[in-house]
Design goal:
Blueprint lengths: L4 E8 L5 H10 L5 E4 L9 E7 L2 E5 L2 H7 L4 E4 L12 H19 L5 E3 L7 H10 L3 E3 L20 E2 L5 H7 L5 E6 L7 H16 L3 E3 L10
Parallel strand pairs: 1-2, 1-9, 1-10, 2-5, 6-7, 8-9
Antiparallel strand pairs: 3-4
Helix pairs in contact: 3-4
Length: 222
């Protein structure tokens, strides 16, 4: 059993709620990865990109993303968020490679991780991700022991951050040494949910048997 569990988290889609979420993470010294679609952001934020449970969801603008994500890790979520396995190979390759290249150029950091849009993929997409230089790709599956994955291109997390059994999975993950959760900040739709989320982050930060880790560090060559 590992003495200190690495807790890793990632958040998808680059929405305006990420600005509030990153403030909470900074307050508690939490690390995180944000999975972004470089082809869907405009210079200024898009206030109503879509709706979730009757609430409009906005997407961040490029003019604020450097400040919002300062100190956090950026990963690729494809260029425009399609079902990649349904695209012709050349188009899927462009979605993956151009998405990664634009993020690297803008943020000035290596973009090594990937999150599958809609959680869907096939072997051909996995090969394209390797070809483009990604070291892992996150699914939306749930497993008790996520690391090491059988294949880094099918890196299944422990659970979604709103899972009913979040803390049970957290405790079980101690034996494997890694706990991995994910979500979208637009799913935080009420003030009580925001308060509960901050309490969750604070609880993890205060856990002497856990530390905040980076996803890419799990795959770093020794």
């Amino acid at each position: 059993m590992n003495s200190v569990m690495a807790v890793v988290q990632c958040w998808d889609d680059g929405v305006t709620n990420d600005a509030r979420l990153t403030e909470i993470l900074r307050r508690h010294g939490a690390k995180a990865t944000f999975n972004l679609n470089a082809g869907l952001h405009q210079e200024k934020r898009t206030p109503a990109a879509w709706t979730y449970q009757g609430t409009e969801v906005g997407r961040l603008g490029w003019d604020e993303m450097t400040a919002v994500y300062a100190g956090f890790t950026i990963a690729n979520h494809s260029l425009t968020h399609p079902h990649l396995e349904q695209l012709p190979l050349a188009e899927a390759r462009r979605e993956i490679t151009e998405g990664r290249e634009r993020l690297q150029q803008f943020f000035g950091q290596p973009v090594l991780g990937f999150a599958y849009p809609y959680g869907t993929y096939n072997e051909a997409v996995m090969d394209l991700l390797r070809e483009a230089g990604h070291v892992y790709a996150r699914t939306v599956g749930n497993v008790e022991q996520p690391f090491p994955p059988q294949d880094p291109m099918t890196f299944h997390p422990n659970c979604h951050f709103l899972a009913d059994d979040f803390w049970a999975r957290y405790e079980k993950a101690r034996t494997g040494g890694v706990f991995y959760f994910w979500g979208h900040s637009y799913e935080l739709t009420t003030e009580p949910m925001w308060a509960n989320f901050e309490a969750m982050i604070a609880r993890i930060s205060a856990d002497p048997g856990a530390r905040w880790g980076e996803l890419t560090e799990l795959f770093a060559k020794k």
